[in-house]
Design a protein that fits this description.
- There is one protein chain.
- By secondary structure, the protein is α+β, with helices and mostly antiparallel strands.
- The chain has one domain.
- The chain contains 3 helices and 3 strands, in the order αααβββ.
- A hairpin with a 6-residue loop joins strand 2 and strand 3.
- The longest helix has about 50 residues.
- The protein is elongated, with a radius of gyration of 27 Å.
- It starts with 7 loop residues before the first helix and ends with a strand.
Length: about 160
């Protein structure tokens, strides 16, 4: 015959039973917060990688293609290569169908700029989808699109 202190009925009675119930109620909440924090950190990391990639693309787009070419700037293909290289360095999938790179040249970067500055700017916008997997919430397997845009101009 098992001792009364070891029986299942004793474990579920009194203070121990309350502790088990409280533990069962708190664990899903703490797990959700822990995993949610992880995915939030991942989203911030991806956003920083997008920012670096857009900055690198804008830098390539605004610098002259060669020192002897004069005012010739880099092509859109070379900007794409620079952005994809920065994304690959951050371990992001550059073949993701949701990846979007938008290059805008000769944009008005600041409404207070004189007219001659308007033709020397480049703006690179990078969008990338990130899937969130937060359990026990409505955000389970939700995909959000993170976007970063960088504008640079070449001053003479």
């Amino acid at each position: 015959m098992p001792s009364p202190s070891r029986s299942p009925r004793f474990l579920l009675s009194g203070a121990r039973g309350v502790a088990i119930v409280e533990f069962a109620l708190v664990v899903p909440v703490l797990t959700t917060i822990l995993i949610g924090t992880f995915w939030l950190g991942r989203a911030v990391s991806v956003h920083q990688a997008l920012e670096r990639a857009a900055r690198e693309g804008a830098r390539v787009g605004i610098t002259p293609a060669c020192a002897l070419c004069g005012s010739s700037t880099a092509t859109d293909a070379s900007i794409d290569v620079a952005v994809n290289g920065a994304l690959a360095a951050a371990s992001l999938d550059t073949s993701n169908p949701g990846l979007e790179i938008v290059i805008a040249r000769n944009q008005r970067l600041d409404s207070n700029d004189p007219a001659n500055y308007q033709s020397s700017g480049v703006q690179v916008t990078v969008s990338y989808p990130v899937q969130l997997n937060i359990p026990f919430t409505s955000q389970r397997a939700t995909t959000i699109s993170l976007t970063s845009s960088v504008s640079m101009r070449q001053e003479f």
